Amino acid sequence: MIHTIKKAVTVFSMVIFGSALLYNCEPDADTLGEQLFLDDAAQGKEASFDVIAFNIDNNNSIRSDAAKLGLATLGAFSEGQFGLQKASYLTQLRLSTYDPDFGTNAVVDSVVLVMKPTYASDSVTTNTLDDNYTYSTTTEANVSAKKVVNTYPVLKFGKAKRTFNINVNEVTEFLKSPSDTVKSNQTFAYDAAKILGSKEFKGKVSSITITKDGDGSALFTASTPGIRIPLDKTFFQDKIIAKKDQPELQDASNFIRHIKGLRISVTENDGYLFQFSPNDMELIMYYKYDKTENGVTTKTPATYAFALGSANTHIGQYQYDRAGSVLGTAAIGDDSNGDEKLFAQGMGGPSIGIKFPESTIADLKKLYEENKAAIISAKIRLYTDASWSSGYAKPTAFTFLRKYSNSDKPGKILTNFTDDVLNLAGSNGYTIYKAYDLDKNPAYYDFIVTKSLKDIVEPKPSTETETGIKSSTKYFRIDMGAFQTNSAGTGLAGYEFTTTSYNTSRAVFVGSKTSDANKATLRVIYGTK
Question: Pairing relation of β-strands 83-91 and 314-321?
Fold first, then answer.
């Protein structure tokens, strides 16, 4: 039990080891391995061993419900290696106050849905809309000012310059509760014949700032730059205003069955993928109602903001078409011999599996037994394939997990962090993986397995728990995406909490069943005394 608690404390005290460290030269033995074998000044030697590297088919599906979507993804991207990937987004909406009073003879003027994509804040383009603008504050009237628009490019993966037509449709099927599990390929009925709103989107977002002529200080700054999509005001007149004092607006349960949700999608099948925060979306209804004072009735403007935050169901819906792509005809899942090329793609695309062949383990055990050779450093090295030499950014976020079996659960494959993470997190120089030459072709990545390999090759009790259950590593799994931190920001939330369900990256790597000099290998530095 004490051993288990120590391991848990180690995992949840991790802060910086989740991201890659970038280098541009061949590394020496890492300090992690040196800590494991420093006695008597061992002489280090490096050797390369075979691994079995294979593709894992996830059936183009992954959990993409509210619990998994730190960001929502929208767009479409098609290229020759992976084919088409298209992302839509579904959300519920709720009333911010139930049984609302919109006043007498309320009439909707307009309705706007606001999405706030992630954007490059350091790439602003500034244009002055009005040099002779006047603005009044609570303390000063008719201030001479300038009205300025700041424009930023949205962060994208894919083809940079494409125009999308974003459509909003009404969902006609109940979207379940926020705590329900939903897969990304699950479909929900929607009214395809009626578009509630549309927007031509050219990949940039803007905000408006009003600055004072005298000292340039900001008098007004709009909220975070976003995409404003006008929605059908008649729909909201009929579904909201006309339902005043009726059961549909009395409580949340009735309302989310009255208006079941919204589906946001793009018309096009190629371009790019971009992301936004589901909980930061806004839906604002502008209306007027009759207000009578001193016998005089006037139309009075008002607004009503709907709630689109965390209380609602959020679903990422992903579509794939592999026809005509390299992945569509590639060998997938040969975990006995390995695959020639490895394909890794977030959002339900394929993952990579790595196994140590029995011959590799036998060779290492022979070195240990006959030459007293102890492992100082061990890493699985993957090179990007020559076919992935386009202008797309190399991935910089991976998860790396251990798949294993326990003697008390025969036939069941379990998942956890690697032994390196569980035992060595926080050690100087330790990181889950390192990336090299990301600005070149090929780039390569080293996934650290020093402790994991030592536990297999060098007989130690660390493969036993306090209950005596024998643990056996079956293979390692690599996915696009990063491990998420816990709510306190002090460490990782757990092996199952990752960004894979909305990570837009992908890459092709050299496999192990190939004569390519850059094939997947196990690189070991060992020392003899």
Answer: antiparallel
